[in-house]
Amino acid sequence: MELVTTAVWLFVAFFGIVYFYFQRKFSYWKNRGVPHIEPKFPVGNLPWKELGNFRDVFERLYNLRAESPFVGAYFLANPVAVATDLDFIKDVLVKDFNNFHGRGVYVNERDDPISAHLFSLDGPKWKSLRMKLSPTFTSGKMKFMFPTIVDVSEQFNQALSEMLQDHSEIDVKEILACFTTDVIGTCAFGLECNSLKDPNAVFRAYGRKVFTPSKLRSIRLVFFRVPKLAAALRLSIFGKEINNFFMGIVNQTIEHREKNNIKRNDFMDMLIDLKNNDTLDEGKKIKLGKLTLEQVAAQAFVFFLAGFETSSTTMMFALYELALNPDIQEKLRTEIDTVYGKHEGRLTYEAIKDMVYLDQVINETLRKYPPVPALQRVAQDNYKIANSKLVIEKGTTVMIPAYQIQHDERYYPNPEKFDPDRFLPEAWKSRHPMTFLSFGDGPRNCIGMRFGRMQSRVGLAMLLKNYRFEPSEKTPIPVKFSPVGGILAPINGMHLKIIKT
């Protein structure tokens, strides 16, 4: 009995210490006079029932904006600055990038070698890798990959035409994910994934494994927001099965190409070159060294991950809005038909560049539905905010709520309206550059932006030339977003009626 009593008192004492620690941490923003929402023990400002629902968290915080350049939040016990002032955001992403170059994302190179990719790494490792990879995403390299994307789009057209013989109502979220999986599988791994013919093909299956939302995944995402805690627990991000699959595929691909002297001018060729040859930093005239096999696999993995999910999501939301706005859809279809005619009925690299209204539609889709709703940076040193007495202390995370900024009626009147004319050149130039953050900004913007745009343009041009899209009985109006997962997505897919023209 005495042992039980001692255990109870020890538990009470431990709980009291933890509670006191959190309460002390929860006074951080109040002591600094920063607008904030009162946190709750122990999750801070995160919702109990939907731990992964960061979009709603940012919505509540963004609505507190006033004269302060940011509002205060707490993710567990950690104070987080949620930026609301566009000039402050520009300083963080561009002007004072050197103090905010890190994302503070959890990486586990030991157990999860594929987690050590460009998006997650910080410091010298990120800088060296970015320098090595930047030349692989030039417009010239994109032009090399363009015919491959067109070939996959033609296979997509054939597969969709066959599907429509049995059903006119289709979940476009799934078929677009198959299309982008096949594109990325071909460009990043040189493999025919066949997702369009077989939705259960291995690459599509592993894509689902990574992105399928769940309560457990949402809880893990919260822990990953506290990298020191995640590292102490040695949490695995992707798991052994996913690591083994991608490491195996990359190893097999490299061995096959090097043994048979195969060159495809794709992303994998560029990574193999970086593995076999030193890279020169043109500025400092120093060698950056070669990539290891693990580094090659990590970059191929993130290219696959970011390339298939974000592009397919963007195309899905574009088709959804076009189905709801038939006048915009017909205007775009007319442009596509006109450009095809101008280029002898062929979809060429130059033809895609001529589709100006298509680019406006994609930009407005990204404005209304940014795939990644918020950007993250970490202060490397104490940082005094311009025209303010406030200081962002070293190690503090700064979150930039892209979704809320891109739905702010001060910058986009009637923000829920889908209006591609917001991205006419004169309209775009009249806005603050930080009002559009779907690809980030500054030196750490999305390195694959050109590829993502090209893939989305080709996919949409092919679809709209051959099909018309309408709402169906299953189409969610208005769309309801999934509260879990890191990518903006509808809850139950996106069903549309597709009519072959």
Task: Describe this structure in a few short sentences.
By secondary structure, the protein is of the alpha+beta class. It has a single domain (32-500), classed as Cytochrome p450 (Orthogonal Bundle). The chain has 19 helices and 11 strands.
Bin the strand percentage: 5-15%
Number of helices: 19
How do the strands of the widest beta sheet line up side by side? 1-2-9-6
Structural class from helices and strands? Answer: alpha+beta
CATH superfamily: Cytochrome P450
**N/C terminus separation:** 81 Å
What integer is the average pLDDT? Answer: 87
| Total number of beta strands | 11
Shape, principal axes of CA atoms = globular
Largest sheet: 4 strands, mixed
Classify the helix fraction into a percent range. 40-55%
The CATH class: Mainly Alpha
Q: List low-confidence stretches.
A: none
How many structural domains can be distinguished in the coordinates?
1
CATH architecture: Orthogonal Bundle
Radius of gyration: 24 Å
Query: Any idea of the CATH topology?
Result: Cytochrome p450
N-to-C series of helices and strands: HHHEEHHHEHHHHHHEEHHHHEEEEHHHEE
GO molecular function: heme binding; iron ion binding; monooxygenase activity; oxidoreductase activity, acting on paired donors, with incorporation or reduction of molecular oxygen
InterPro entries: Cyt_P450 (IPR001128), Cyt_P450_CS (IPR017972), Cyt_P450_E_grp-I (IPR002401), Cyt_P450_sf (IPR036396), Insect_CytP450_Detox (IPR050476)
Main location: endoplasmic reticulum
Keywords: Endoplasmic reticulum, Heme, Iron, Membrane, Metal-binding, Microsome, Monooxygenase, Oxidoreductase, Transmembrane, Transmembrane helix
